[in-house]
Amino acid sequence: MNTVRAIEWREGKVRFLDQTRLPLEEVYVETDDEAVVAQAIKSLAIRGAPLIGIAAAYGFVLAFNKLQSNDGRTIVAWIEKSTSLFSSTRPTAANLFWAINRMRHAVIDVAGTPLDEMKARALAEAQAMHKEDEEMCRAIGQLGSELLPPAASVLTHCNTGSLATGGTGTAQSIIATAWEQLKLRHVYIDETRPLLQGSRLTAWELEKLQIPFTLITDNTAGFVMQRGMVNVVVVGADRITLNGDVANKVGTYGLAVLAKYHGIPFYVAAPTSTIDFEMTSGKEIPIEQRSSSEVTQLAGRQIAPPDVDAYAPAFDITPNELVAAIITEKGVLRSPFRMAMEMLMKKDLSSMVRKAVFR
Amino acid sequence: MNTVRAIEWREGKVRFLDQTRLPLEEVYVETDDEAVVAQAIKSLAIRGAPLIGIAAAYGFVLAFNKLQSNDGRTIVAWIEKSTSLFSSTRPTAANLFWAINRMRHAVIDVAGTPLDEMKARALAEAQAMHKEDEEMCRAIGQLGSELLPPAASVLTHCNTGSLATGGTGTAQSIIATAWEQLKLRHVYIDETRPLLQGSRLTAWELEKLQIPFTLITDNTAGFVMQRGMVNVVVVGADRITLNGDVANKVGTYGLAVLAKYHGIPFYVAAPTSTIDFEMTSGKEIPIEQRSSSEVTQLAGRQIAPPDVDAYAPAFDITPNELVAAIITEKGVLRSPFRMAMEMLMKKDLSSMVRKAVFR
Question: Per the CB < 8 Å rule, is A193 touching B223?
Fold first, then answer.
């Protein structure tokens, strides 16, 4: 599969694709400055919940590489500074906080060892996360493809591909896997206003993968369902709570309601790092508000009267009762989600114990 | 009320606002060429089902004014040519065909009279239609305002105001009337992709009317309903069939499904000229397909990869079971719509009989 490398570690630097320039320009940025990476996350040059996590992890490594001393106080100050730098980029994606936390632990685990060793450990952890993400994409693609109806005609929203993850994607990995397995008939892509991740990014990726698709405006989704043009909806997620509520790109909730009305299954694909085991319901998820100008301007051009007030939540919450299943790399979760999540945690725990014993 | 004159008859010419230039430029076009009017309808410089009807009527007058002879054959040829010119502009709006038909009858009624008299009759008919449309807007505003819930927070789609009618609008007239009557709390406007009639036109009009509103992307509608930010949806219509099915700007159907799911009333506001008494169900309505490029380009800028295929129906069909009521200038129609339509026809008939008797 022709997979785009949205982010890479290259000889002490992070190289990433500036996604705000797509689809017209394919511009890569190479940097050893963690602030540049943080700003790229903020501006959506790097986006997609899993990819944000990987970017933050590499950003930690960049910061760490500047350390001159392994004095305990310096290390702690460095961890806190990096944590705050990356935590403040975007509030909704669970993977971001999961990745930050994991980097903190990795470094704390080897505190007191020589500086070079600590730096190597930090990089190894970030690279492991990146590699795991690739494997996660493959597993989700496989598990999800099995769930699709015959001759699947998939409706998807936003971008969940190589540009959103460290591998082939979440929802999009299911689409690509189904295509390889001759199970996919067609894909309908919501353009995904305001930032057009569907028309700019997903259309660009599916063209590269040579998967047949049709672009629609977000408000055409109901019509294509009514006309029987799609038989399944598959989307990604930015945060999933213990009860199975899903935060994802704004518009997802409307699709879920429409899918319900038309009796079409609505699937969410996400790695377990998207699950926030500390939140019991979607009501607790902080919803990032974007600037009015993302709605009232497009490509620098004013498309509404100046000074118009726009309400621009980046995400919405889909309640669990509209979700047919959550496809993770570790298995397919179904209602009642709370129980499924608990089983998932136990499974994780037992595999960790196994690892510890048989290491 | 500060009402924009989207179209006017001015000393033998039609003057119209080029709506494709809004909101950044307010450009008026004055012409005595019916082909310019037809092209303006096609390109959406003149749009909105009722306004299209009025524009076509004035277009007929422009064409008629060029006639040099009242010879029967010439008149018939002229009628057929004008009919075909305007019928081929846009396929979905019922008002267009209603207006064309009415102009044909008006002229046929006075066939054989001196040419100047016939020309005067044609103009009088077009002006009568324009005036009736103004009154229709007022009546719909009044009837609709009475239906709104207390402290109404209305969600609307596309543009249904002075830019879509010969008066204050359909759905928007309800909004404006409710505002004057202190019954309106707030308006949420869908931007209405792909041509942004919400953000370009409705936002521009509500600003002029000083009515408080917030602009949202179409895909945010579900979220604002879920959060209780709107308590009623009011939209216009391009064609309504005998069973109460409604063709309106694409996205309307999705809003109707969302409104149903949230228990929010969904109202359609339209003049009786929008009702197609010859069609029994929405399945028969021809849906205009717009060019892919209206989705893949914006303001001349490519926003998707070149050559991407987009599906761009201009309208969708909302089935009658999702419609709480249809607000016409002659009364409020409710389910079962078929019966309500028959009563409406009888009422019309009896008033026509009365007129004939007491003339």
Answer: no
